[in-house]
Structures are given as C-alpha cells and as structure tokens.
Specification:
It is built from five helices and six strands. By secondary structure, it is α+β, with helices and mostly antiparallel strands. A six-stranded mixed β-sheet has the order 1-5-6-4-3-2. It is globular.
Length: about 110
C-alpha cells in the first residue's frame, strides 16, 4: 500500500515548489531531506500521456501521495522520490534519460537547499 500524506505547512515539508524543465513546470515537495516530484508532471515533460501506467511501474517504496490544493480543489497527487524519478525516466525514455542528461535536467542538490 502506498504512503499517504496530507500536505500541510506544519508537517515538515518545505512547501510546494515549482521546478522548470524544458519550458514545463514540475511540482516538487521537500520533506525532511527528501525531494518528491509530482509523477504526472514528470511524465508530461517526457511526453508520456499514460502517467497512471508509468507510475504504476515505480516501486511502492519510491512513491507517496500528497493531498494538495489545485485550481480544482484538493487533489490526491502521486509524488515520486529521487530513486523513483530515475526509475521512471529510464523506463519511459532511455534515450533522453542518459545519466548526464538526467543530472543536468534535475539539479537535485540545488532543490534540496
């Protein structure tokens, strides 16, 4: 079963932050020392229209749900951690997810600060 979190400012999360990649935005949440990426956003950046299928391939330990407020109200959104991000990218588009490209595209150390 997937982890479930209700996203609130007092739960140790640094807040919902937007990360721009190739002209598109990826929602991120930093909780403790771990950064979480909105799985659907990552899929959209890489042209994957079936995010549910792709995110279903990510290990349960590498994903969680955060309840966030969107224009449509509260939504239960799947977020993936760094390991889940790499797993997702390599399974979707190996030619675009070479190790240097992924490192350049996602400066994780900068996001953690």
């Amino acid at each position: 079963m997937t982890n479930q979190h209700c996203f609130q400012k007092n739960d140790g999360a640094a807040g919902l932050q937007l990360f721009a990649f190739e002209g598109q935005q990826v929602r991120t949440i930093i909780q403790g020392d771990e950064i979480w990426f909105a799985g659907k956003d990552v899929c959209e950046v890489f042209g994957d229209s079936n995010h549910r299928r792709s995110l279903g391939r990510v290990l349960e330990e590498d994903k969680t749900h955060f309840e966030i407020v969107t224009a449509g109200g509260k939504q239960n959104v799947i977020f993936i951690n760094e390991a889940g991000l790499y797993d997702l990218l390599f399974s979707m588009r190996p030619e675009r997810a070479n190790s240097k490209g992924v490192q350049d595209a996602y400066p994780l150390e900068t996001q953690r600060r």
